[in-house]
Design a protein that fits this description.
The chain has a domain of 231 residues. 21% of the residues lie in helices and 29% in strands. The protein has seven helices and 14 strands. Belongs to the TIP41 family.
Length: 353
Protein backbone atom coordinates (compact mmCIF):
# COMPACT_ATOMS: atom_id res chain seq x y z
CA UNK A 1 0.00 0.00 0.00
CA UNK A 2 1.32 3.45 -0.92
CA UNK A 3 2.43 5.62 1.97
CA UNK A 4 3.95 9.02 2.64
CA UNK A 5 5.95 10.11 5.68
CA UNK A 6 6.13 13.71 6.85
CA UNK A 7 7.51 15.88 9.64
CA UNK A 8 6.37 19.28 10.89
CA UNK A 9 7.36 21.65 13.69
CA UNK A 10 4.75 23.58 15.70
CA UNK A 11 5.35 26.51 18.03
CA UNK A 12 3.83 26.05 21.49
CA UNK A 13 1.47 28.96 22.05
CA UNK A 14 2.50 31.43 24.75
CA UNK A 15 6.05 30.09 25.17
CA UNK A 16 9.54 30.95 23.99
CA UNK A 17 10.49 30.36 20.33
CA UNK A 18 12.66 27.45 21.43
CA UNK A 19 9.67 25.57 22.86
CA UNK A 20 8.32 23.59 19.93
CA UNK A 21 6.43 20.37 19.24
CA UNK A 22 7.67 18.08 16.49
CA UNK A 23 5.01 16.16 14.59
CA UNK A 24 6.11 13.00 12.80
CA UNK A 25 3.61 11.03 10.82
CA UNK A 26 2.72 8.70 8.03
CA UNK A 27 -0.25 8.56 5.69
CA UNK A 28 -1.06 5.11 4.37
CA UNK A 29 -4.25 4.58 2.39
CA UNK A 30 -7.16 6.15 4.31
CA UNK A 31 -5.16 6.23 7.57
CA UNK A 32 -2.93 8.93 9.07
CA UNK A 33 -0.78 8.23 12.13
CA UNK A 34 0.64 11.29 13.94
CA UNK A 35 3.23 11.24 16.75
CA UNK A 36 3.81 14.51 18.62
CA UNK A 37 7.03 15.10 20.59
CA UNK A 38 7.42 18.00 23.02
CA UNK A 39 9.49 18.92 26.05
CA UNK A 40 8.77 18.10 29.67
CA UNK A 41 6.17 20.32 31.36
CA UNK A 42 7.38 23.70 32.57
CA UNK A 43 6.26 25.33 35.83
CA UNK A 44 3.22 27.00 34.29
CA UNK A 45 2.10 23.76 32.63
CA UNK A 46 2.57 21.84 35.89
CA UNK A 47 0.40 24.40 37.70
CA UNK A 48 -2.30 24.17 35.03
CA UNK A 49 -2.25 20.36 35.11
CA UNK A 50 -2.47 20.31 38.90
CA UNK A 51 -5.41 22.71 38.77
CA UNK A 52 -7.25 20.57 36.22
CA UNK A 53 -6.65 17.30 38.07
CA UNK A 54 -6.99 18.57 41.62
CA UNK A 55 -3.92 16.54 42.64
CA UNK A 56 -0.17 16.99 42.49
CA UNK A 57 0.93 15.97 38.98
CA UNK A 58 3.77 13.49 38.43
CA UNK A 59 7.34 14.74 38.39
CA UNK A 60 7.82 14.36 34.65
CA UNK A 61 4.69 14.81 32.56
CA UNK A 62 5.03 15.44 28.83
CA UNK A 63 1.85 17.38 28.04
CA UNK A 64 2.64 17.81 24.35
CA UNK A 65 3.53 14.17 23.66
CA UNK A 66 0.64 12.37 21.98
CA UNK A 67 -0.26 9.75 19.42
CA UNK A 68 -3.27 10.24 17.15
CA UNK A 69 -4.65 7.77 14.62
CA UNK A 70 -7.10 9.14 12.05
CA UNK A 71 -9.28 7.55 9.38
CA UNK A 72 -10.74 9.51 6.50
CA UNK A 73 -14.26 8.56 7.69
CA UNK A 74 -13.77 10.77 10.76
CA UNK A 75 -12.83 8.05 13.25
CA UNK A 76 -9.88 8.97 15.50
CA UNK A 77 -8.05 7.36 18.39
CA UNK A 78 -5.91 9.44 20.74
CA UNK A 79 -3.31 8.78 23.46
CA UNK A 80 -2.01 11.61 25.66
CA UNK A 81 -0.77 12.24 29.21
CA UNK A 82 -3.52 14.46 30.57
CA UNK A 83 -6.33 12.10 29.61
CA UNK A 84 -4.49 9.17 31.23
CA UNK A 85 -3.93 11.16 34.42
CA UNK A 86 -7.65 11.96 34.58
CA UNK A 87 -8.16 8.26 35.47
CA UNK A 88 -5.86 8.34 38.50
CA UNK A 89 -7.51 7.76 41.88
CA UNK A 90 -8.23 10.98 43.76
CA UNK A 91 -8.68 13.20 40.71
CA UNK A 92 -11.50 15.71 41.08
CA UNK A 93 -14.84 14.30 39.93
CA UNK A 94 -15.45 16.85 37.18
CA UNK A 95 -12.10 15.98 35.56
CA UNK A 96 -12.32 12.20 35.87
CA UNK A 97 -12.49 9.95 32.80
CA UNK A 98 -13.75 6.37 32.65
CA UNK A 99 -11.09 3.66 32.80
CA UNK A 100 -10.86 -0.14 32.70
CA UNK A 101 -11.42 -1.80 36.09
CA UNK A 102 -8.87 -4.63 35.85
CA UNK A 103 -9.21 -5.68 39.49
CA UNK A 104 -12.96 -6.17 39.22
CA UNK A 105 -12.66 -8.10 35.96
CA UNK A 106 -10.04 -10.43 37.47
CA UNK A 107 -12.05 -10.94 40.67
CA UNK A 108 -15.12 -11.78 38.60
CA UNK A 109 -13.14 -14.31 36.54
CA UNK A 110 -11.64 -16.17 39.50
CA UNK A 111 -14.72 -15.98 41.76
CA UNK A 112 -17.46 -16.66 39.23
CA UNK A 113 -19.42 -13.55 40.22
CA UNK A 114 -20.68 -10.73 38.05
CA UNK A 115 -18.51 -7.75 37.17
CA UNK A 116 -20.83 -5.38 39.09
CA UNK A 117 -20.59 -7.54 42.23
CA UNK A 118 -16.81 -7.67 41.94
CA UNK A 119 -16.59 -3.91 41.55
CA UNK A 120 -18.82 -3.38 44.59
CA UNK A 121 -16.54 -5.60 46.70
CA UNK A 122 -13.44 -3.58 45.91
CA UNK A 123 -11.96 -1.94 48.97
CA UNK A 124 -10.95 1.72 48.71
CA UNK A 125 -7.46 2.85 49.60
CA UNK A 126 -4.07 3.57 48.10
CA UNK A 127 -0.67 1.91 48.29
CA UNK A 128 1.87 2.72 50.97
CA UNK A 129 5.64 2.50 50.69
CA UNK A 130 7.30 -0.49 52.34
CA UNK A 131 8.46 1.43 55.41
CA UNK A 132 5.24 3.41 55.93
CA UNK A 133 3.90 1.34 58.83
CA UNK A 134 7.23 1.37 60.67
CA UNK A 135 7.54 5.11 60.11
CA UNK A 136 3.99 5.75 61.30
CA UNK A 137 4.45 3.61 64.40
CA UNK A 138 7.66 5.43 65.31
CA UNK A 139 5.93 8.79 64.86
CA UNK A 140 3.07 7.56 67.04
CA UNK A 141 5.45 6.47 69.79
CA UNK A 142 7.43 9.71 69.61
CA UNK A 143 4.23 11.74 69.80
CA UNK A 144 3.03 9.85 72.84
CA UNK A 145 6.36 10.27 74.62
CA UNK A 146 6.47 13.98 73.82
CA UNK A 147 2.91 14.44 75.12
CA UNK A 148 3.68 12.80 78.44
CA UNK A 149 7.39 12.66 79.18
CA UNK A 150 6.71 11.14 82.60
CA UNK A 151 4.64 8.24 81.32
CA UNK A 152 5.97 4.69 81.23
CA UNK A 153 6.84 4.04 77.58
CA UNK A 154 6.70 0.29 78.20
CA UNK A 155 2.95 0.59 78.77
CA UNK A 156 2.40 2.31 75.41
CA UNK A 157 0.63 0.16 72.83
CA UNK A 158 0.74 1.55 69.26
CA UNK A 159 -2.76 1.68 67.88
CA UNK A 160 -4.44 3.80 65.25
CA UNK A 161 -2.26 6.60 63.98
CA UNK A 162 -3.16 10.11 65.12
CA UNK A 163 -4.84 12.39 62.61
CA UNK A 164 -1.60 14.30 62.07
CA UNK A 165 0.18 11.21 60.74
CA UNK A 166 -0.80 9.85 57.33
CA UNK A 167 0.81 6.80 55.73
CA UNK A 168 -0.75 7.38 52.32
CA UNK A 169 -1.75 10.45 50.36
CA UNK A 170 -5.34 11.35 49.55
CA UNK A 171 -4.77 10.46 45.91
CA UNK A 172 -3.03 7.63 44.13
CA UNK A 173 0.56 8.84 44.38
CA UNK A 174 1.66 5.96 42.10
CA UNK A 175 -0.33 7.54 39.24
CA UNK A 176 -1.71 4.13 38.26
CA UNK A 177 -3.93 4.53 35.21
CA UNK A 178 -5.97 1.97 33.29
CA UNK A 179 -7.01 4.46 30.64
CA UNK A 180 -7.15 2.66 27.26
CA UNK A 181 -6.99 5.70 25.01
CA UNK A 182 -9.77 7.86 23.63
CA UNK A 183 -11.73 6.72 20.55
CA UNK A 184 -13.95 9.17 18.71
CA UNK A 185 -16.68 7.77 16.48
CA UNK A 186 -17.04 8.82 12.87
CA UNK A 187 -19.97 11.12 11.97
CA UNK A 188 -21.91 8.06 10.81
CA UNK A 189 -21.69 6.59 14.30
CA UNK A 190 -19.01 4.07 13.43
CA UNK A 191 -16.10 3.38 15.73
CA UNK A 192 -17.87 2.04 18.83
CA UNK A 193 -16.06 -0.91 20.43
CA UNK A 194 -18.03 -4.04 21.28
CA UNK A 195 -16.95 -7.21 23.07
CA UNK A 196 -15.42 -9.80 20.78
CA UNK A 197 -17.41 -12.96 20.11
CA UNK A 198 -15.42 -14.71 17.36
CA UNK A 199 -12.18 -16.24 18.72
CA UNK A 200 -10.82 -16.59 15.19
CA UNK A 201 -11.29 -12.94 14.18
CA UNK A 202 -11.58 -11.02 17.45
CA UNK A 203 -7.92 -11.28 18.37
CA UNK A 204 -4.62 -9.67 17.50
CA UNK A 205 -2.94 -11.90 14.88
CA UNK A 206 0.49 -12.14 16.45
CA UNK A 207 1.63 -14.44 13.66
CA UNK A 208 1.60 -11.41 11.33
CA UNK A 209 3.67 -9.25 13.65
CA UNK A 210 6.97 -11.13 13.76
CA UNK A 211 9.89 -9.01 12.47
CA UNK A 212 10.41 -11.48 9.64
CA UNK A 213 6.83 -11.10 8.37
CA UNK A 214 6.95 -7.51 7.13
CA UNK A 215 9.26 -4.49 7.28
CA UNK A 216 8.50 -1.66 9.71
CA UNK A 217 7.98 1.51 7.69
CA UNK A 218 7.19 3.80 10.63
CA UNK A 219 8.00 3.55 14.35
CA UNK A 220 7.82 5.84 17.36
CA UNK A 221 8.01 5.62 21.15
CA UNK A 222 6.51 8.37 23.32
CA UNK A 223 6.78 8.81 27.09
CA UNK A 224 3.57 10.39 28.40
CA UNK A 225 4.55 10.73 32.06
CA UNK A 226 7.01 9.36 34.59
CA UNK A 227 7.61 9.61 38.33
CA UNK A 228 10.28 8.11 40.60
CA UNK A 229 7.87 7.97 43.57
CA UNK A 230 10.22 9.74 45.94
CA UNK A 231 13.00 7.20 45.22
CA UNK A 232 10.64 4.37 46.16
CA UNK A 233 10.32 2.90 42.67
CA UNK A 234 9.08 3.97 39.28
CA UNK A 235 5.80 4.82 37.57
CA UNK A 236 5.72 5.34 33.81
CA UNK A 237 3.24 5.49 30.96
CA UNK A 238 4.46 5.28 27.38
CA UNK A 239 3.00 4.45 23.99
CA UNK A 240 4.69 2.79 21.01
CA UNK A 241 3.48 2.50 17.44
CA UNK A 242 4.79 0.51 14.51
CA UNK A 243 3.36 0.56 11.03
CA UNK A 244 3.92 -2.16 8.44
CA UNK A 245 2.79 -2.14 4.79
CA UNK A 246 -0.45 -4.02 5.55
CA UNK A 247 -1.21 -3.37 9.24
CA UNK A 248 -0.22 -1.46 12.35
CA UNK A 249 0.08 -2.09 16.09
CA UNK A 250 -0.02 0.32 19.03
CA UNK A 251 1.05 -0.61 22.56
CA UNK A 252 0.35 1.75 25.43
CA UNK A 253 1.86 0.44 28.67
CA UNK A 254 1.61 1.64 32.25
CA UNK A 255 4.35 0.18 34.45
CA UNK A 256 4.63 0.50 38.22
CA UNK A 257 7.31 -0.69 40.61
CA UNK A 258 7.05 0.18 44.30
CA UNK A 259 10.16 -1.26 45.91
CA UNK A 260 9.44 -4.14 48.31
CA UNK A 261 5.68 -3.67 47.77
CA UNK A 262 4.18 -4.32 44.33
CA UNK A 263 4.51 -4.46 40.54
CA UNK A 264 1.71 -3.47 38.15
CA UNK A 265 1.35 -3.46 34.38
CA UNK A 266 -1.59 -2.32 32.27
CA UNK A 267 -1.37 -2.76 28.50
CA UNK A 268 -3.63 -1.47 25.75
CA UNK A 269 -2.93 -2.92 22.31
CA UNK A 270 -4.61 -1.58 19.20
CA UNK A 271 -4.37 -3.55 15.97
CA UNK A 272 -5.55 -2.25 12.60
CA UNK A 273 -5.33 -4.19 9.37
CA UNK A 274 -5.18 -2.26 6.10
CA UNK A 275 -6.33 -5.32 4.14
CA UNK A 276 -9.85 -4.96 2.73
CA UNK A 277 -10.52 -8.67 3.26
CA UNK A 278 -10.01 -8.25 7.03
CA UNK A 279 -12.74 -5.62 7.28
CA UNK A 280 -16.48 -5.88 7.85
CA UNK A 281 -18.83 -5.63 4.90
CA UNK A 282 -20.70 -2.33 4.69
CA UNK A 283 -24.44 -2.81 4.12
CA UNK A 284 -25.51 -1.31 0.81
CA UNK A 285 -27.87 1.19 2.43
CA UNK A 286 -25.03 2.50 4.67
CA UNK A 287 -22.45 3.14 1.97
CA UNK A 288 -21.42 6.71 1.28
CA UNK A 289 -19.51 8.46 -1.47
CA UNK A 290 -16.38 8.55 0.73
CA UNK A 291 -16.19 4.77 1.16
CA UNK A 292 -13.27 3.51 -0.94
CA UNK A 293 -14.27 -0.14 -0.67
CA UNK A 294 -17.18 -2.37 0.24
CA UNK A 295 -15.70 -3.05 3.68
CA UNK A 296 -14.95 -0.91 6.71
CA UNK A 297 -11.84 -1.37 8.88
CA UNK A 298 -11.99 -3.80 11.77
CA UNK A 299 -10.11 -2.36 14.76
CA UNK A 300 -9.14 -4.79 17.50
CA UNK A 301 -8.38 -3.47 20.98
CA UNK A 302 -6.98 -5.65 23.73
CA UNK A 303 -6.69 -4.40 27.32
CA UNK A 304 -4.81 -6.48 29.85
CA UNK A 305 -3.61 -5.75 33.37
CA UNK A 306 -1.66 -7.70 35.97
CA UNK A 307 -0.36 -7.12 39.48
CA UNK A 308 1.78 -9.11 41.90
CA UNK A 309 3.72 -8.50 45.06
CA UNK A 310 7.34 -7.46 44.82
CA UNK A 311 8.33 -10.64 46.68
CA UNK A 312 6.49 -12.92 44.22
CA UNK A 313 8.19 -11.34 41.23
CA UNK A 314 11.59 -11.30 42.90
CA UNK A 315 11.21 -15.02 43.62
CA UNK A 316 11.22 -15.60 39.84
CA UNK A 317 14.70 -14.16 39.34
CA UNK A 318 17.10 -16.57 37.59
CA UNK A 319 18.29 -19.09 40.21
CA UNK A 320 21.89 -18.81 39.08
CA UNK A 321 21.83 -15.04 39.81
CA UNK A 322 19.43 -14.59 42.74
CA UNK A 323 21.11 -11.40 43.96
CA UNK A 324 21.13 -9.66 40.58
CA UNK A 325 18.10 -7.36 40.85
CA UNK A 326 18.56 -5.68 37.46
CA UNK A 327 15.72 -7.71 35.85
CA UNK A 328 13.32 -6.00 38.28
CA UNK A 329 13.89 -2.75 36.38
CA UNK A 330 13.37 -4.43 32.99
CA UNK A 331 9.77 -3.61 32.06
CA UNK A 332 9.45 -6.42 29.52
CA UNK A 333 10.85 -9.04 31.90
CA UNK A 334 8.57 -7.95 34.73
CA UNK A 335 5.53 -7.90 32.41
CA UNK A 336 6.26 -11.49 31.36
CA UNK A 337 6.51 -12.61 35.00
CA UNK A 338 3.26 -10.87 35.92
CA UNK A 339 1.51 -12.59 33.04
CA UNK A 340 2.87 -15.97 34.13
CA UNK A 341 1.80 -15.39 37.74
CA UNK A 342 -1.67 -14.32 36.64
CA UNK A 343 -2.12 -17.43 34.49
CA UNK A 344 -0.88 -19.56 37.38
CA UNK A 345 -3.48 -17.99 39.68
CA UNK A 346 -6.27 -18.55 37.15
CA UNK A 347 -5.33 -22.22 36.77
CA UNK A 348 -5.24 -22.62 40.54
CA UNK A 349 -8.71 -21.13 40.94
CA UNK A 350 -10.09 -23.19 38.07
CA UNK A 351 -9.12 -26.40 39.87
CA UNK A 352 -8.60 -29.81 38.25
CA UNK A 353 -10.33 -30.44 34.93
Amino acid sequence: MLHREYERVHQVQGTSPADVVTERGITIGPWTICAFHGSIANAAELDRLGSVLGITPPEMPFPHNALTIKHESGFTYHFDAESALRCVGGVRDEAKLASVDCAAHFRADVSGISFDEARAQRKPGFLKVAYADNWGTSRNIQGAIAADADSDASNFCPGALPSTVSTSKEYDWTYSSTWPGLPTAAPSGRGVFVAGTDPARDRIPTERLAPSCAPIIFYDDLVLYEDELGDNGSSMLNVKVRVMPHDMLVLQRFFLRVDDVVFRVFDTRLYISFRAEDGDAIPTDERTATDRSATRPRIIRECRGAEASYADVRARLPPHRPNDLSPLTDVNWVAAQLQALQEQQLRKNAGPC
